[in-house]
Amino acid sequence: MRDSEEPNVNMLELTNIHYSVHKKCIFKGATTSLKNGECVAITGDNGSGKSTLLKIIAGLMVPNKGNVKIDSRKILAMSRNRRLSHCVLHQ
């Protein structure tokens, strides 16, 4: 059984995510977690950082600070193919 299949284990963890582009702060200290079976919606205005957050979760973009973990494993320690298997981003 994978860790994320246990009901009280965090499937996804974002810890103290900071991300800036051209001196513009997009995220500062974003922290949250999801357990197996939980569902979340990411909402916001155009340009508010929704797609950026999903790309950081997928490991396609690297935050300036902080960690993303899936099944208690740092996303950036995974192979690119493994990272991409966890996240689909539709525009």
Automatic annotation (TrEMBL):
Pfam family, one: ABC_tran
InterPro entries: ABC_transporter-like_ATP-bd, Metal_Ion_Import_ABC, P-loop_NTPase
Domain (ABC transporter) ranges: 28-77
GO MF entries: ATP binding; ATP hydrolysis activity
Domain of life where this protein originates: Bacteria
Gene3D superfamilies registered for this protein in UniProt: P-loop containing nucleotide triphosphate hydrolases
Keywords assigned: Transport
UniProt key word S-adenosyl-L-methionine: no
Family membership: Belongs to the ABC transporter superfamily.
PANTHER family the UniProt entry points to: METAL TRANSPORT SYSTEM ATP-BINDING PROTEIN TM_0124-RELATED, MOLYBDATE IMPORT ATP-BINDING PROTEIN MOLC
Designated name of the protein: ABC transporter domain-containing protein
